[in-house]
Amino acid sequence: xxxxxxxxxxxxxxxxxxxxxxxxxxxxxxxxxxxxxxxxxxxxxxxxxxxxxxxxxxxxxxxxxxxxxxxxxxxxxxxxxxxxxxxxxxxxxxxxxxxxxxxxxxxxxxxxxxxxxxxxxxxxxxxxxxxxxxxxxxxxxxxxxxxxxxxxxxxxxxxxxxxxxxxxxxxxxxxxxxxxxxxxxxxxxxxxxxxxxxxxxxxxxxxxxxxxxxxxxxxxxxxxxxxxxxxxxxxxxxxxxxxxxxxxxxxxxxxxxxxxxxxxxxxxxxxxxxxxxxxxxxxxxxxxxxxxxxxxxxxxxxxxxxxxxxxxxxxxxxxxxxxxxxxxxxxxxxxxxxxxxxxxxxxxxxxxxxxxxxxxxxxxxxxxxxxxxxxxxxxxxxxxxxxxxxxxxxxxxxxxxxxxxxxxxxxxxxxxxxxxxxxxxxxxxxx
Length: 431
Prior knowledge:
H-NOX domain
């Protein structure tokens, strides 16, 4: 069976990430990285609206400190480049939702194992925040980045530091690159002290779930891992088919770990009720935006089959080792969605998007379907044997049209909502 270049053809209930070509997986990977990055554009404003500017800054710091060290070590292991030098940190950044390709256009120079520099030729986050004034820019580029960059670096070496050569607020206002940073091992520094929430997040099912990997490639070419030399010009197209499938699963898991960390921070500062309400809004907003972008990226239409295809590929329901989610076409022109008992439903501390799931249709489900076709209607149905929850999506041309709520509107504020990716390198050939 030929690998899919996009998903413009008919719906197939057996389609998985492995059904797509390396180029299609690279395109999907950039979308997944961006979706994981932009979920903060929904979650953090919801914190701001309730608790104010300072609270939003504090939560932003705590969520990244409680998530990035976990998924940094996971991707190192998955792609075979675990180490304790600057090269390892740079490889991490190339596979981090905090640095989605092109939107956060990281460029690198590795001078020696204990020293290197990176700079941003384009910083989508800066473009989003500059219109709100210098105070917001300082909060993001100084108050938030100082501890969170060091937390990411310290996952590789306890005395690894990231320090600015220059950073915003920009002076002059058109300064390029937007920022430049040194990354180095300070052998005389005190070992970095991680945030207490990190240990709690490490105890989650998300942190420890194992993502299976195919023993063979469905398409030749590419690197099977990233154990080789650091490549400053790395693109997802450089990886082999099986490596890309694994990376996309890990990138999706990064989103769940980050969402858990935000929920954990809000709960410990205020209440579980606040955390659940913010998580519900965050999931709904990013679910709709990611669905819209996936539809365009994969040449998907707007009919009932299109809705089924988007649910199949949506990163909110990946990796399947964490979320036992299934999509099929049901009789009488409906999409059937089911979730069985799985790790995502077993997070005992409830710091998860899935903690708010129940028999009634979740707003995130309605937002995904509605963003593809505004006449889509989602309803709960009896769960079949082996499933915990089940829903059906239909298209009713005479029913009420789906209307985006505040959380969906928030997801559109970022320039990332309409950002267009480039294919900068063709898939690396075999040999």
